[in-house]
Design a protein that fits this description.
Gyrase A, domain 2, alpha+beta, Nucleotidyltransferase, domain 5, five-stranded mixed β-sheet, about 30% strand
């Protein structure tokens, strides 16, 4: 049976009751594990989900007269514009909209809007996702939930298990003023029909028994107390992304694109080098194979060369076309009917010498050109110096033919 594959872990950063932050690891289907406390959010070791403290957001519950979920965000945006919480140019990343309940032709929705002055300590590149801190708690049904965040009291009111509001109070302790503020919040929620009769108040974290008694006396609600639970990932992902962090993410994406491009070019360069090295190796392999074949054929080539040399040496004796009588015959056949006669024909060290007299110098030159053009005599390189003219106008000429093959003595 195959083992179960665990979901990848993520870091989650949560504000505690003080100046420090808590770092947790969370994953779907598993409980959160505490890692350590951090002095500053930027100390996170990797990409992190940030649980936004309640002071960084404004929650706005509203009944809208439509059940069309595609239209609800636009209606809510207009209502927030009227109250100065949004402008026309604000993008969708500073508002998160959730439908809590639908009734016939109306719906109860809650908008969570980022405060305009986003803190610099939460503006860091590794902040990959932002979730309002209230959504990282498993909240009780139809109750006020109170906890401490960054030295202030935070309160949420739930309809069912969904938070309607999440805001901070003006005090750190559950003083008379803070309890009075809570009573006003409850009355306003009931007046606007956002929640009915609350079932109680749930305290998370360190609260004294006197604070709990004060709450129960003024609000007339049952008060329960529990330790601050580990965070959990909400089922619905928030759309909130501060513009300052969005700019950092865009810069990171651009850097990654640049590095990806550099890596791609480097890969092509290395691939080219590898291909060139492979080509050189192939060429060397082919050259070595050819050299080996040449060495293997050297005895055969040497024997053929020796035999060829021997045939060249005896060619003049065995080739009829090189017989002196044949050469004389071919040359004399080129003589004109009159005006020219041969006076000498000799073979001296393989060279053919033909001397004669012509009635004119042009006739001697024509005879030399005819010898050069004769196919049977083209085994020689024929040269003729300028003829010498006799007093009677006749021209004496000498034509020499050097063999194109090896000479023999």
């Amino acid at each position: 049976m195959a083992g179960k594959i665990d979901k990848p872990l993520s870091y989650l950063l949560r504000a505690n009751d003080g100046e420090e932050w808590e770092l947790w690891t969370v994953s779907e289907g598993k409980g959160a594990q505490f890692v350590r406390r951090l002095a500053a959010p930027a100390e996170v070791p990797g990409n992190t989900i940030v649980a936004l403290p309640a002071r960084q957001t404004v929650t706005f519950p509203s009944w809208v007269s439509t059940g069309d979920r595609d239209v609800i965000p636009e209606i809510l945006h207009l209502q927030l514009e009227k109250r100065g919480l949004l402008t026309k140019n604000d993008n969708g990343s500073i508002m998160d909209c959730r439908v809590i309940e639908t009734q016939n032709d109306r719906a109860l929705v809650v908008a969570t809007v980022l405060q305009p002055d986003f803190p610099r300590e939460l503006t860091f590149e590794r902040a990959s996702r932002f979730e309002p801190s209230v959504y990282t708690f498993a909240l009780p049904r139809d109750q006020l939930v109170i906890w401490r965040e960054k030295d202030r009291l935070a309160v949420a009111a739930t309809r069912g298990k969904e938070p309607l509001i999440a805001q901070i109070l003006g005090d750190r302790e559950l003083s008379d003023a803070a309890v009075t503020e809570l009573k006003c919040i409850v009355l306003q929620l009931q007046l606007q029909e956002f929640c009915g009769n609350l079932l109680g108040v749930h305290l998370l974290g360190n609260f004294s028994s006197q604070e709990a008694e004060r709450l129960q006396k003024v609000l007339a609600l049952r008060v329960t107390h529990d330790s601050l639970p580990p965070p959990s990932l909400p089922a619905i992902r928030s759309k909130l992304l501060p513009p300052e962090v969005s700019i950092l993410h865009a810069k990171r994406r651009r850097r990654r694109q640049i590095w990806s491009g550099i890596g791609f070019l480097a890969g092509l360069y290395l691939l080219g080098i590898a291909a060139f090295a492979g080509y050189l190796y192939w060429e060397r392999h082919v050259a070595a194979r050819l050299r080996r074949q040449l060495r293997e054929q050297e005895p055969t080539v040497a024997a053929i060369q020796k035999t060829a040399e021997q045939w060249r040496q005896v060619e003049s004796a065995v080739n009829p076309r090189l017989y002196p009588v044949e050469i004389l015959y071919q040359a004399s056949s080129l003589l004109p009917p009159d005006g020219m006669r041969l006076t000498k024909f000799a073979l001296e060290k393989g060279k053919v010498i033909i001397s004669g007299e012509a009635s004119t110098a042009p006739g001697a030159f024509k005879f030399a050109e005819d010898i050069k053009a004769r196919p049977e005599l083209q085994m020689f390189n024929w040269q003729m110096p300028s003829p010498s003219l006799r007093p009677d106008g006749r021209a004496e000429f000498t034509i020499e033919g050097s063999p194109k093959f090896a000479k023999t003595d």
